[in-house]
Design brief:
The protein is flat. It folds into 2 domains: about 10-155, CHAD domain, CATH 1.40.20.10; about 160-308, CHAD domain (Alpha solenoid). The two termini are about 30 Å apart. About 80% of the residues lie in helices and about 0% in strands. The model has no long low-confidence stretch (mean pLDDT about 90). The longest helix has about 35 residues, at about 215-250. By secondary structure, the protein is mostly helical.
């Protein structure tokens, strides 16, 4: 997203404009979701929804409380309507990898699982389309758009400007990532890694939403450095999710009759466990690069900060 913003704009007007663009993006993906052309339409719809929810949280003082609460309620509801279908889509897309990962003959043993998931997908897709056709969804869209348009029109007086507010939010998000990353480096559980990944998404959304406020070369460098760390974190989580899915869906194949499909799922689970372990060993190197002195100075410069 490259919406042209002026650093002197009031943060309320700038954020409203960004959120309206995300609502437009969500609505533009609905025909593709309905026609079931590609799973990416639902993915893009969810990204715009998550980005909106994250920006509302990251700049919580920019909007009046009633508007903020409306947005949180809307996007929380949308997440519940779309998450299961997206999870199944991701799992079904992974079948393309399974053919290369499994020994000859074992891939066919997964066909009962694929058939089961395709049936579940049909049910979840019907439920999602019903949600998108519901009065509740249309009312949310209408009320959210109207509230944002009103915020964009209102006189702002001495309200904070977006240049200052965005810099403050980005700097806080970067420091939060540094804190969570240091915690993850010494943690024995995966909770800290998940917190770091969420913090990284929030920082990425801020940088992308307000990128036109900064020199293109600098902000692209910041996003590039962040993306490298996010890729490692994303791989770790993807491997964990695949293991969780494989374990969860096994419950639907009880008894000796499904011994072959369970054996194939166990085989895949072992592969993903080994990949997760190997990728975790790469984490520290990428995190150290992200919080290096050079990268810290880059973010200080973007956010007009001095000292720590």
């Amino acid at each position: 997203m490259n919406m042209q913003l002026n650093r002197g704009m009031a943060i309320r007007q700038a954020l409203s404009a960004v959120l309206l663009s995300q609502l437009d993006l969500m609505e533009s993906n609905i025909p593709g979701i309905r026609d079931d052309i590609d799973a990416e339409f639902l993915h893009d719809f969810r990204v715009a929804s998550r980005r909106s929810r994250s920006l509302i949280s990251g700049l919580k003082d920019a909007l009046p409380v009633p508007v903020r609460e409306l947005g949180r309620e809307f996007f929380s509801w949308l997440s519940k309507q779309t998450s299961t279908l997206r999870d199944i889509d991701v799992f079904l897309l992974a079948f393309r990898q399974y053919r290369q990962l499994l020994p000859a003959g074992m891939y066919e043993q997964l066909m009962p699982l694929q058939s089961f998931l395709e049936q579940r997908r049909g049910t979840e897709r019907t439920d999602l389309l019903s949600a998108l056709d519901s009065d509740r969804f249309h009312n949310y869209v209408h009320d959210w758009r109207e509230a944002l348009q009103q915020q964009a029109r209102e006189e702002t007086g001495t309200a904070p400007v977006v240049g200052d507010a965005a810099g403050e939010a980005i700097w806080k998000a970067w420091k939060r990532m540094r804190k969570h990353g240091r915690r993850a480096a010494g943690a024995k559980s995966d909770e800290a890694l998940h917190e770091l990944r969420i913090s990284g998404k929030k920082l990425r959304y801020l940088l992308e939403a307000f990128r036109t406020l900064y020199p293109a070369r600098d902000v692209e460098r910041a996003i590039r450095q962040l993306r490298k760390l996010q890729n490692v974190l994303g791989d770790i989580v993807d491997y964990q999710v695949q293991q969780e899915y494989l374990s969860h869906w096994q419950e639907n194949f009880p008894g000796r009759r499904h011994r072959d499909v369970k054996a194939a799922m166990d085989y895949l689970g072992d592969i993903y466990a080994k990949r997760e372990k190997a990728t975790k060993k790469m984490f520290q190197r990428h995190f150290d690069a992200f919080v290096s002195a050079g990268n810290r100075e880059l973010f200080r410069s973007l956010c007009n900060r001095t000292g720590r």
